[in-house]
Specification:
The protein starts with 5 loop residues before the first strand and ends with a helix. 16% of the residues lie in helices and 44% in strands. The chain is an alpha+beta fold and 68 residues long. The relative contact order is 0.20.
Length: 68
């Protein structure tokens, strides 16, 4: 059984488990390191929630949350 978690490796090598999703009008994600030293939950309003790439605002939120 799976919760749909994905592995994500940051540029500095940290490994996270992430679940993301989107509907028209918003995108959201939850994620954490295995030891829970870093956790992240966000929901961002977007007009392109089903676009191919990551929402630029969400990307900046994620990178800021994961900085050391």
């Amino acid at each position: 059984m799976s919760a749909g978690l994905e592995r994500f490796v940051t540029p500095d090598g940290r490994r996270l488990r992430v679940k993301s999703g989107a509907r028209y009008g918003f995108s959201a994600a939850v994620g954490a390191t295995r030891d829970l030293s870093r956790t992240l939950v966000y929901s961002v309003g977007a007009t392109d929630a089903k676009g191919d790439g990551m929402n630029p605002v969400a990307e900046r939120i994620v990178m800021a949350a994961l900085e050391r």
